[in-house]
Amino acid sequence: MNETIETILNHRSIRKFTDQKLSDEQIRIIIQAAQQASTSSYVMAYTIIGVTDPEIKKQLAEVSGQFYVEKNGQLFVFCADLSRIQAIQAQDEEKQVMEENLESTEQFIVATVDAALAAQNAAIAAESLGLGICYLGSLRNDIERVSDILQLPDYVYPLFGMAMGYPNHEPEKKPRFPMEVIYHENTYKKHPEQDKYVQDFDATLKEYYSNRSFNVRSDTWTKQMIRKYKVPQRLDVGPFIKGKQMNRK
Amino acid sequence: MNETIETILNHRSIRKFTDQKLSDEQIRIIIQAAQQASTSSYVMAYTIIGVTDPEIKKQLAEVSGQFYVEKNGQLFVFCADLSRIQAIQAQDEEKQVMEENLESTEQFIVATVDAALAAQNAAIAAESLGLGICYLGSLRNDIERVSDILQLPDYVYPLFGMAMGYPNHEPEKKPRFPMEVIYHENTYKKHPEQDKYVQDFDATLKEYYSNRSFNVRSDTWTKQMIRKYKVPQRLDVGPFIKGKQMNRK
């Protein structure tokens, strides 16, 4: 075990921050860390927007419904961004194939993954500095509005936000699936072998929720997933992204 | 600057490894690190396949065309995985909405990002242990074959591989875009302001390629992108994923 692995294993999402803002130097080092992540074929297909304008933060918090989108030490929005490729001057016949590529699901994956890897580097770097973070998928509650607020052009979409700052609470670490569920050897291990592990995990989690120091309740992973997935979830995201000329085929 | 940030900033992709295999204990801690990454709404929508069977490694190396898919200390394949949600027993009317969600682009993003965040934690943890890594998007050169080789069910797709092991070369760090290209304040900064930065970066990169210690050439970022994007890139990935019941709407 070393410092880095301790930092990684100590991760929990932080949702309450002190009033202290990040310094420019902290932001610089965190963005530098983000940029050093691997990038598919050197594409660097992402843009990070640092939001400090109180009015913009307020509007984004309305979309997410989460107060910590406004109240934090720094707010970032990670965008998947193929627009720099699209802007390249090329010959007409090259340009045609380039745009076909840019509209493919493959390039949608490339940009999404590039943004995600950069974000996770930023998260780990921040946590190593004693800061806390929370990913904000909730910005996709109204992805079109977020895109409008941040003035995102075509070939760019807002993937998620990240609230960052000095922690003002110490949440417990939530259990994860046992390694056997997540890690398979050589080939995928199908249900029903897997079902038993999930049932065991439900039992573990029920114990966790009934014993923890706050928000005690009777709950399992399976129940949470049903509650989440039984109502339509952001079904406008797909059509919105197609409107950005991405993930069209 | 601390050890963790030093590890992150020191990243370069490693493509030549010694013969030494990772120990079970190393693999365990790396997977544990992966699992501690943030996950959207606690979904944990990914599966990691550790490939040790020489025949399977050989087949995957054929798909990627990269020798280090076979020759490494450990090979992982990160899969986006919504199948555990799909396997949950629920009432018929709940089930219908659940499947509609699972087929959405939103949930495709959720699973892809979950897998990517886990992978980047694994990468950083490995590098902190003195190991090197290389992401293998090249497995998507024939995504259907990879899925067949690894016996992936519906609602699961192979996102990328990761070769890991003890480095047997020390490549130079490749430059990244200046921070101004990647990091914008409050709103997206459109071209042409951006164009100038990219041109400057092309000049920087030309200098880098002409001065480095191996594979000296005359090249720029723009030229590389045109070479890559002017030929069709994995246009079968989109239809393949739809066939897995994901990213359909």
Q: How would you portray this structure in words?
A:
Chains A, B: Belongs to the flavin oxidoreductase frp family. Chains A, B: Its EC number is 1.5.1.38. Chains A, B: Residues 8-166 form the Nitroreductase domain. Chains A, B: Pfam families: Nitroreductase. Chains A, B: GO terms for molecular function: FMN reductase (NADPH) activity. Two copies of one chain form a homodimer. With 249 residues, chain A is α+β, with helices and mostly antiparallel strands. The first copy, chain A, has one domain: NADH Oxidase. In chain A, 47% of the residues lie in helices and 13% in strands. Chain A is built from eleven helices and five strands; from the N terminus they run ααβαβαααβαβαβααα. In chain A, strands 1-2-4-3 form a four-stranded antiparallel β-sheet, with helices on both faces. In chain A, helix 2 (24-35) crosses helix 6 and helix 3 (54-64) runs antiparallel to helix 7 (143-150). The longest helix of chain A is centred in the middle third of the chain and has 24 residues, at 105-128. The interface between A and B is large, with 115 and 115 residues. Strand 1 of chain A pairs parallel with strand 5 (183-185) of chain B.
Descriptors:
homodimer; 249 residues; alpha+beta; NADH Oxidase; 11 helices; 13% strand
Classify the beta-strand content of chain A into a percent band: 5-15%
- Largest interface here, residues on each chain? A-B, 115 and 115 residues
Main pleated-sheet profile of chain A: 4 strands, antiparallel
Query: What class would the helix/strand composition of chain A place it in?
Result: alpha+beta
CATH class of chain A: Alpha Beta
CATH-level-4 superfamily name of chain A: NADH Oxidase
Tally of domains of chain A: 1
CATH topology grouping of chain A: NADH Oxidase
Mean pLDDT of chain A: 96
What's the count of strands of chain A?
A: 5
Unreliable residue stretches of chain A: none
Strand order of the largest sheet of chain A: 1-2-4-3
Helix count, DSSP H or I runs of 4 or more residues of chain A? 11
Radius of gyration of chain A (Å): 20 Å
Share of helix of chain A, binned = 40-55%
End-to-end separation of chain A: 45 Å
Second rung of CATH, namely the architecture of chain A:
3-Layer(aba) Sandwich
Protein name (chains A, B): Oxygen-insensitive NADPH nitroreductase
Domain Nitroreductase (chains A, B): 8-166
EC number (chains A, B): 1.5.1.38
Family (chains A, B): Belongs to the flavin oxidoreductase frp family.
